[in-house]
């Protein structure tokens, strides 16, 4: 299987889009916040013609850095994966080549009313973990509770407007108060219930389409693969292609 060095070479040599995510992209950064980097790389097409396929994702080479191969990224985005969709809408873009810019121009093609089930489904899973902390320790991990509230707000607003905005804006101080443990858990639960209900109510009248535009995304991926094949028409050994 491909080595970590091979994966890192794909990230450093073939990244088409890179951004900063996490608290910095959400407008929730504090002095001790990490810098979480996310990216998308386009593995050279000839690598797919071998028994060993290129990795679908790579961790590193920098700390707090994670990248996806373009096809895997698009696949997850079409499934309305919350982390992937938010990555596409980060206000902190560090790099975008021609392919990356076209990917960003396709952001709307990935959005659909499916975000209700995926965002709230992810939130439900995280809520169970938070509730387990409350049962075991008498209090949640407040940072997780804050991000759960943030995610539910994002889902509600996305379904209402059709626009995915990652920065929490004026909600920053309210959310940071939750992170600091200044809001009672019962009140946090109440807010979660209200947000989940508002998101559910917004789904039926949402300006978002019922399904993503899979055909448009597939056309983009096909053209990206074809252009890569033409650029690497005479590949050498594996490492030379990378």
Any overview of this molecule?
The structure is a single chain. α8 packs antiparallel against α9. The mean pLDDT is 93. This protein has 2 domains: 136 residues, Beta Polymerase, domain 2 (2-Layer Sandwich), CATH 3.30.460; 89 residues, no CATH class. A 5-stranded mixed beta sheet has the order 3-4-2-1-5. By secondary structure, the chain is α+β, with helices and mostly antiparallel strands. The longest helix is centred in the middle third of the chain and has 23 residues. 56% of the residues lie in helices and 10% in strands. The protein has 12 helices and 5 strands.
Give the SSE map.
Blueprint: H1 4-14, E1 15-21, H2 23-26, E2 36-41, E3 57-59, E4 65-69, H3 70-78, H4 82-88, E5 93-96, H5 98-105, H6 107-110, H7 115-137, H8 142-161, H9 172-179, H10 185-203, H11 214-231, H12 238-241
Parallel strand pairs: 2-4
Antiparallel strand pairs: 1-2, 1-5, 3-4
Helix pairs in contact: 7-8, 8-9, 8-10
């Amino acid at each position: 299987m491909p080595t970590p060095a091979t994966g890192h070479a794909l990230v450093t040599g073939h990244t088409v889009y890179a951004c900063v995510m996490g608290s910095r992209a959400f407008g929730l950064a504090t002095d001790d916040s990490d810098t979480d980097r996310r990216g998308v790389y386009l593995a050279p097409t000839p690598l797919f013609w071998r028994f060993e396929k290129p990795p679908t994702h790579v961790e590193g080479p920098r700390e707090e850095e994670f990248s996806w191969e373009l096809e895997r990224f698009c696949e997850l985005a079409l499934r309305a994966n919350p982390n992937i969709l938010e990555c596409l809408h980060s206000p902190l873009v560090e790099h975008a080549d021609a392919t990356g810019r076209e990917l960003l121009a396709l952001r709307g093609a990935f959005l659909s009313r499916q975000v209700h089930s995926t965002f709230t489904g992810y939130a439900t899973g995280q809520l169970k973990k938070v509730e387990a902390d409350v049962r075991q320790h008498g209090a949640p991990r407040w940072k997780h509770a804050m991000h759960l509230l943030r995610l539910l707000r994002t889902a509600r607003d996305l379904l209402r407007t059709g626009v995915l905005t990652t920065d929490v804006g004026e909600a920053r101080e309210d959310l940071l108060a939750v992170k600091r443990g200044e809001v009672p858990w019962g009140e946090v639960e109440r807010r979660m219930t209200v947000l989940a209900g508002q998101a559910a109510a917004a789904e039926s009248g949402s300006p978002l389409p019922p399904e993503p535009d899979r055909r448009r995304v597939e056309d983009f991926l096909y053209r990206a693969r074809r252009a890569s094949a033409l650029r690497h028409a005479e590949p050498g050994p594996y490492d030379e292609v990378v």
